Amino acid sequence: MRRRTYFRLALSLAVPAALWPLGAGAADNTATQAAGVAADTVWVIVAACLVLFMQAGFAMLEVGFARMKNVGTVVAKIVVNLSIASIVYWAVGFALAFGAAQGWLFNILGATGFAPTFHPGSVIDLPALATSTAPAAAKFFFEFVFCAVSLAIVWGTMLERTKFIVYILFAIPFCALIYPLISHWLFGGGWLMSMFGSQDFAGSTVVHLTGATAGFAGLLLLGPRIGKYGRDKKPNAIPGHNMPLAQLGVIILWFGWFGFNPGSTLNATNLHFADIVVTTNLAAAAGAIGAMLAIYKVQKSLDVGMIGNGAIAALVAITAPSGYVEPWAAIVIGAVAGVIVVYGVLAIDKWLDDPVGALSAHGLAGIWGTLSCGLFTDPALAKFNGVGQGGLIYTGSFNQLGAQALAVTVAFSTVFVLSFGVFWAIKKTVGLRVSARHELDGLDISEHGMWGYPEHFMPVPGGAYIHPDALAEPERRREEAAASFAVAENQH
User: Fold this and answer.
1) Nearest to 140 by CA among 41, 53, 50, 209
2) Do 312 and 288 contact (CB within 8 A), yes or no?
């Protein structure tokens, strides 16, 4: 009897002791998973905030390249477009870009997640983003700031003569359909990505070529600024008013790109984002140097704007291959982009008035960056990312290069047709362009009723500016006094 009691007591102690490591292991597992989710979520939100800050970069870049009479409208345009993109992309764009859909429809568009509601534990079916453990709200916010960047790119080609209402009217269809369509095909699991393996890690085509192509469509209907081309059809230089501000914009954009490319992993725990930081920075550096050498060869001077545009073009170019290439390839891609932007700006300027060089920096460089995946993609990284295959340099095959060329062709054609149609409709209704009088006066005063630099254009209490009439007043009084004195003397 006593033996049975001892046996039961031993068994009651042994079972919990045996199960305790299993329970502890399960707890550790749960804690590790929770930490991974938290790390991914924090990284995605931080990266998204870096990309959001790029709006300040676009603002400073455009302000610097604009004339003093048009700087205020640039900032207003950035803020309003960001606001429109926020609401429209939440209501419609995100679902079309990344939502799920039944059967063949998924190759074209997503169809779930319209006007999504987010709360802890909420789930949205987002097939292309399923590999990230970050919650749907974090994924939405990250993808939204990409849409906002693409919209900001559109307007660089159309500065200094566009009606403000045009920004509002075009932003809605762009964020609701045009951008989400291309985004779904290359980011969201659509046909270019799933059927052909086209690679675009962070958006050389989806974001940059899309924005530049829409701007190109608008520019064709808008026409050049007054005075840009002489009677001999040769272009006149219209310099921006503040190059330090423009280069501040370049540096802000460079900084923001560390959210743009590395953040596209949507994942902190696999550590690939650190590799992409390196490729991004090396490409930008090579682009600035490449542009510097190219412009010196052409003009025998070191054009500050061109050097900055070289860095931007290189960042655009490395955006698609950033997660697919080794550092040496990033340097080559960036340097080539720096050369492309210099010759591109000089060639395009002969025919089209693009004040900030957006068609070259975002369009031509975006095409080069997308095609470069077909040349330099490391097969191991293609396998790691699960899209496409190695580039020509590694495999000797033109398959990936063909997939990249297809993506560029389809995206450019689709965006151009849709954007041209929208801009044409706007032109036929409210009009695209301000009047010649308003353009000469400046959009700050004609569109917003105020100057960006008021002391340069009008007297301000306590300011240094003095109206010419005010300077002439003391002289007039002295002349009157002298004349009165002369009359008095004559009377005596």
Assistant:
1) 41
2) no
Does residue 331 register a pLDDT over 80? yes
Distance in angstroms (rounded) separating the CA atoms of residues 437 and 448: 15
Judge whether 130 and 267 are in contact, CB under 8 Å.
no
Query: What is the DSSP code (8-state) at residue 229?
Result: B
| Structure-token pair, residue 416 | 């151009």
Contacts of 302 (CB under 8 A, 6+ apart): 292, 295, 296
Distance CA 24, CA 477 (A): 96
Half-sphere CA count of 418, side-chain side, radius 13 A: 23
Alpha carbon distance 240, 64 (integer Å): 6
Q: Which two tokens stand for residue 66?
A: 């604009």
Residues 6+ apart with CB under 8 A from 119: none
Note the pLDDT tens digit of each residue in 287-310: 999 999 999 999 999 999 999 999
Q: Any idea which residue has 């496409």 for tokens?
A: 388
Supply the pLDDT for residue 461.
Answer: 74
DSSP 319-343: HTTTTTS-HHHHHHHHHHHHHHHHH
Q: CB 150: neighbour CB atoms within 10 A?
A: 27
Dihedral pair phi/psi, residue 109, rounded to 5°: -150, 155
Nearest-10 Cα torsion for 85, 334, 350, 67: 50
Half-sphere exposure of 426 (CA within 13 A, CB side): 25
Return phi, psi of residue 225, to 5°: -70, 155
Q: Which long-range contacts (CB under 8 A, 24 or more apart) does 234-239 make?
A: 234/350, 235/349, 235/350, 235/353, 238/67, 238/355
**Residue 31 reports pLDDT greater than 70:** no
Tell me if the pTM is above 0.70: yes
Of the candidates 271, 381, 380, the residue with the CA atom closest to the CA atom of residue 322: 381
Q: Is 486 exposed, middle or buried (0-12, 13-18, 19+ CB in 10 A)?
A: exposed
Beta carbons of 116 and 124 less than 8 angstroms apart: yes
Least confident residue range of 15-19, 36-40, 137-141, 169-173: 15-19
**Tokens 């701007």 identify what position?**
215
Rounded CA gap, 354 and 486, in Å? 63
Label residues 337-370 b or e (16+ Cβ within 10 Å = b).
bbbbbbebbbebbeebbbbbbbbbbbbbbbbbbb
